[in-house]
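Thread: quick sanity check before group meeting

JM: Hey all, I'm pulling together slides for Thursday and realized we never actually wrote out the predicted structure for the chain we discussed last week. Dropping the sequence here so it's in one place. If anyone has concerns about the input, flag it before I start.
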Amino acid sequence: IQETEVMELRAKLGNIIQQVNREEKKKRSFAAKLTTSRVAIASVAASLILLLSISGLISRNTTSSDAELYSQFYQPYQTTGIFRSGDALIDSKLTQALHKYNDQQYDASIDLFSQVLKIDKNNPVSNFYSAMAYQQTGKPELAIEAYQKVIQDKDNLFIEQAQWYIGLCYLQNENRKKAYRQFKSIANSNGFYQEKASAILRKIRYLEE
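JM (edit): ok, ran it. Output follows.
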């Protein structure tokens, strides 16, 4: 083999070695990128799982706290006295409805209160106690509607009670912001439920710290 051929062979070998080195670098670079990508994906997945877990815990804690507050402050309002409207049919159905309510037959009482309200849609006794029955059967939204009718009537003895129970319905419905505003309004008044509203506000603030 001549010297020139040896030089050419060395040059070719050098080129081959350089090409092999470049290929090896590419492979290592790709492997590193792949590993980095896998680590990044795993990190994102772990973060998402952690975030979802924390969100779930917060949600469960909020629900639990609202339910505990509701249980602590809610007491069903008892029927008091005899309510006379001056209409014999209304008085008869109202008496039956109140008996059903006292016997904790809430669905039956709601049906009878509804019959009264078909005759007298603004009847405050029927609106108030049907709201109580809705609340007792886990229907806070319907209860709020009925309580609001009591408040809108303006001329009855159940307005303060309706305002208080609306706040409790918001807690029952896990709407703490509306509950807070409702109880704050009651606490700023000089009504019967002022102290209770102030107490429940303190507990809500504590839960949100």
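AS: nice. The helical segments are 3-73, 88-102, 106-119, 124-136, 140-153, 159-172, 176-187, 194-208. DSSP finds eight helices and no strands in the chain.
JM: adding both to the slides.
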